[in-house]
Design goal:
Layout (H helix, E strand, L loop, with lengths): L1 E12 L11 E12 L3 E12 L2 H23 L4 E13 L22 E14 L5 H10 L2 E10 L3 H26 L3 E11 L35 E14 L1
Antiparallel strand pairs: 1-2, 2-8, 3-5, 3-6, 4-5, 7-8
């Protein structure tokens, strides 16, 4: 964990409104940023099944889903969260099914060149795992086991509130240091804290280089997955506070 402390704009005034603080005060702004190594990796895995009938297409995608789930559980261990959504089954037609404005521009009868030649089933799944160092390896294994697209989408913290609390403490410490410097430079003596006001923290945004799409694969051969090292950058958590100190007589 690393800390980045930033002192912001400062306002010294002989008096403020009675509603805020009576007498002489000094107001300072402190910004604290803490860095935390992420302990959760997020992967998006897309599956695709094809067949002459809807059942054939869905059977193909169900087989791939089972293979991916079992393979990732073996690689990553228990405790992973693999969810599924956005399941679609659509008709497929040949490349000669077109009109002057292009395929899909308007409804057509399913006859002749536009006769249905098969069905395509697709599914999007998301994997949430604490095995961060194995995330890229998991993407490669998912592709081997039948995923049409597998990628590391990002990273997260299992306890963002704890990181935010550390950032708040760091921000208050910066404000206290800055207030002491200003009071000393003006030959004043600080009194107690009159008020503390915080500002909403920035959203945590992380990204990772995604693995390139891979074609659907046959059942996995009995060999170990290709290991890809993964060491994500720490996640920044930011806090900003405005602290008002009384000026002691």
């Amino acid at each position: 964990m690393r800390y980045l402390l930033v002192a912001g704009a400062v306002l010294i005034s002989p008096a403020v409104s009675a509603q805020d603080a009576p007498g002489r005060t000094v107001q300072v702004m402190g910004t604290g940023v803490v860095q935390t190594v992420p302990d959760i990796a997020l992967l998006d895995i897309y599956l695709r099944g094809e067949g002459a009938t809807p059942d054939a297409a869905t059977s193909a995608i169900a087989a791939k889903q089972k293979a991916v789930r079992e393979g990732l559980t073996k690689l990553l261990g228990p405790g992973n969260d693999l969810t599924a959504g956005n399941v679609t089954i659509i008709e497929a037609r040949g490349s000669t099914c077109a009109d002057a404005r292009g395929y899909g521009s308007q409804p057509r009868l399913s006859t002749g060149d536009c006769a249905v030649s098969g069905f395509i089933a697709t599914m999007q799944t998301r994997l949430k795992t604490r095995a961060v160092s194995k995330a890229a390896t998991a993407a490669g294994l998912a592709s081997r086991l039948g995923a049409s697209d597998a990628r590391v989408q990002g990273f997260a913290l299992s306890d963002p509130n704890a990181a935010q609390a550390r950032a708040n403490i760091a921000a208050v410490a910066v404000a206290a240091e800055r207030a002491a410097e200003l009071a000393s430079g003006a030959s004043l003596r600080l009194g107690p804290i009159v008020s503390i006001r915080d500002q909403a923290s920035y959203d945590i945004v992380v990204s990772a280089v995604a693995a390139p799409p891979a074609p659907a694969a046959p059942p996995a051969p009995r060999v170990s997955p290709v290991t890809i090292d993964m060491k994500p950058e720490p996640i920044d958590t930011r806090a900003q506070v405005f602290v008002t100190y009384a000026i002691a007589p």
